[in-house]
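Section 5.1 Outputs to date
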Amino acid sequence: MSSALSLQSLFTQDWLQFIVVALLGFLTGLELRGYFAGKVDHYTIGTSRTYTFIAILGYVFATLDPLYHLYLAGMLFLALLFGVFYFRKLQADQHGILQLLIGLLVYTFGPVAQHFQPWFLLLLFVAIVFVLNARPLANRIVEGIDRSELMTLTKFILLAGVVLPLLPDTQFSPYVPISPFRIWLGVVAISGISYSGYILKRYIFREQGYVLTGLVGGLYSSTATTVVLARKSREHGRQQGGPQGQLVAAIIAASGMMYMRLLLLVLILKPGLLAVAGIPLLSLGLLVFAVAGVLSRIGRNSQTAQDNLDHGGANPLELGVALLFSVLFVAMISLTHFVISYYGQQGLALLSVIVGFTDIDPFVLSLLNGHYIGVIEPQLAGAVLIAAGANNILKGFYALVLGERRSGLRILLVLTAMGLLTAGWGYLIFNGG
């Protein structure tokens, strides 16, 4: 801590600020020169020395006049100079304003060094270099991204950054033991995790093998991934050299990712529950991954597919889906409150089993966000595990009914065993074992 403070106090020295500002201006000029190298008939202005002097000029003007009148006059002169240069570029049918923007940013290095922490000046320089070198990546993103995904990203910002802060954090009904803020926080948490898996699957791991598809898909929805891969196994049937072994491993891996997903939800929404639920969720998830790894190695002699799988269903950030999920969330937390009020703790354990054979996300969120009288943390953790165990058994039956018979039977046996182990461990925790 003392070394960090001494370094920060050292950066307040004028001579050091001057050297750093001049050096970063010079390096920015070098980077810009390299950016335009090899571009024939492209108009440029200045060299690395020019950008060094621009940085120095900004620092000197900001230092001489604390009111920044001289600094703003220098910025106006610089903008006019670059404006004349840009007019010349337009005559040559060149429209880029990159050099103008970078020149103005370099001119701000001086005031930034004087008024901000050192890391901010370095971050500004790194951002300039990154953007200059990100052109190939940006082109690939523009060519590959579906423009509707920009609207989807806007919806996530709306959900998380606009709607969430506006909601009150007070309970609005004695029958719904949660505030509107906590309800929407659950929607944002589950949507964010699901959306991350959706983006990974659609744009980054789009044409990977089945096992990786299972892992990434499990972050999106282990149930949806199981259904899609089970149908894929039926399409391939028991053909010679088919990918059945990899499909089995992928479906098991998707269920392993369910444990990681639940662990992440606990970490975000109720970190105090990690002391009870953390070890079971992590241990069971790793065990399922180990089983999937063994099955993948056994089936490696079969064809490893590179199919582009579509999970089907709606994007997890569709506003209609989010609103429906919030309604299900409120209904589930009301039902949980009713069951606990009238049937006590054992009623919660039974409800966990029943809910496990449906979509467990609203139920898990109701446990992590609600305030239930007479229910302690081990019982909440146990209920989450019981529901997860029952859900594993449900996915095993999905695989048996929708998939190739022999592969489906193997998946059913593995997921049933894992489901019973998970539910059993949850029951022991629930009863204080």
